[in-house]
Amino acid sequence: MDKNNLPKNLFEPLVKKEDSSDRISTPSRTFGQNARRTLFKNKIAMISLFILIGFGLLSLLGPGMNEYGYDDQDLNRSKMPPHVKALKDVSWLGFNGTLSGKFEGKTVEAATAKAVLRFENQEDFIDIKVINEGNGDDIPAKVKATYHIYEAKGMQDTYFWLGTDNLGRDQWTRLWEGTQISLMIAIVAAAIDLVIGVAYGGISAFYGGRVDTVMQRIIEVLIGIPNLIVILLMVVILKPGIISIIVALTITGWIGMARLVRGEVLKLKSQEFVLAARTLGTVNLKIITKHLLPNISGIIIINTMFTIPSAIFFEAFLSFIGLGLAPPAASLGTLINGGFASLRSYPYLLLYPAIVISVIMIAFNLLADGLRDAFDPKMHK
Predict the structure, then answer these.
(1) Which residues, including other chains, have CB under 8 Å from residue 363's CB and lie 6 or more apart?
(2) Spatial contact of 65 and 171, defined as CB atoms under 8 Å apart
(3) CATH topology for 171-379?
(4) Which of 3, 4, 152, 231 could be cross-linked to 122 through a Cys-Cys bond (beta carbons 3.0 to 4.6 Å apart)?
(5) 105 phi and psi, to 5 degrees?
(6) pLDDT higher than threshold 80 for residue 273
(7) Residue 144, CB half-sphere, CA atoms under 13 Å: how many?
(8) Rounded distance between C-alpha atoms, residue 82 and residue 170, angstroms
């Protein structure tokens, strides 16, 4: 077909309209909107956020869900296993209110005698299941004993959801009371680190010169002292307690934040928007608060989110080695310390605090990873 003889009705003239030629088809979003959109699309980070919210609510509401106080002692109910009314018929979940163990002996009778001795000589409330009858000295007899401790103590209608400790205190109440205290210590310590670190690093970098030199030499001296020694020394001087742990965690905890903020401010303070603000006569305080801090807010938030689980772990470590909270106060560290002493006989005393602290630390780290991606412009789509 000859292109010169094509019918004109096959073509439509293109008319350029001045009002729509430069129109942007996609909606315009701010940096904050893009960050929020990226965070909401991160399923792992959002699941972690909901888990942390759930643990936070349980730490506030959990101690009031039953009639037992966190220091309500009764030796008659010491070391009772978990007992939940709705789950007591599902034995494999471990909430049926029984203690069990495997015992060996030369004969079935000898193994049974060990089981009876182990479970307070309450033979009438112990179920024995023979696993292996043995054949004398070569292969010992083995039995599995199940002790119905709630029935033995006449407490069939009493329910301790996570059991009790060696003083008869309800573990459910103490677990969430301890979670509340651990979260409070970590968040307060992280907040103090945030304030001191941002102020110190921002002033050091913004003013520079001799001010920066002196302030950085102070940081180098503090870094040269082992962090653990400083913390242990402060805990010993101030005596164990919430205040001493917070002070110990914040003495050197702000240094990482200060160095991070200093590096970011050094990078930004020579940018054109800062020079423009100086030219217009903006005072230094306003330049720092209105121009520099908003541009490094993402880095600050992310670093703070990583600081919180570190503080939780350090508090648990101090409590585990006996330098944490003084009894009868509870934290996740003190609960783990108490459960570790009875690990072989009563593993549930260690299991639940260990699960809670592990889940909290993992959730905080995953949420911090999500925030890091959200505040990275390269990740915005």
Answers:
(1) 48, 49, 51, 52, 55
(2) no
(3) MetI-like fold (1.10.3720)
(4) 152
(5) -165, 170
(6) yes
(7) 6
(8) 10
Tokens representing 139 are: 């292969």
Peptide linkage before 327 cis (omega within 30 of 0): no
Alpha-carbon distance values, 290 to 94, 202, 303 (Å): 56, 13, 20
Cα 179 off chain centre by: 9
**Bridge partner list, 102:** 144
- pLDDT grade for 91, boundaries at 50, 70 and 90: confident
Which residue's entry shows tokens 């083995």? 142
Q: Each residue of 15-61: pLDDT tens digit?
A: 666 555 555 555 667 767 888 888 889 999 999 999 999 999 999 99
Q: How far is CA 365 from the centre of its chain?
A: 8
Task: Copy the structure tokens of residue 370.
Answer: 């999500």
Predicted TM-score (pTM) of the model is 0.83
130, 110 contact by CB (below 8 A): no
* Helix/strand/coil for 139: coil
Sequence-distant (6+) residues with CB within 8 A of 220 are: none
> pLDDT per residue over 152-185, tens digit each?
998 988 899 999 988 899 999 999 999 999 999 8
* 3-class DSSP state of 293: helix
Identify residue 84 by its one-letter amino acid code: V
Q: Looking at residues 354-366, what average pLDDT do you find?
A: 93
Beta partners for 146?
100, 127
Instruction: Indicate the residue type of 54.
Output: G
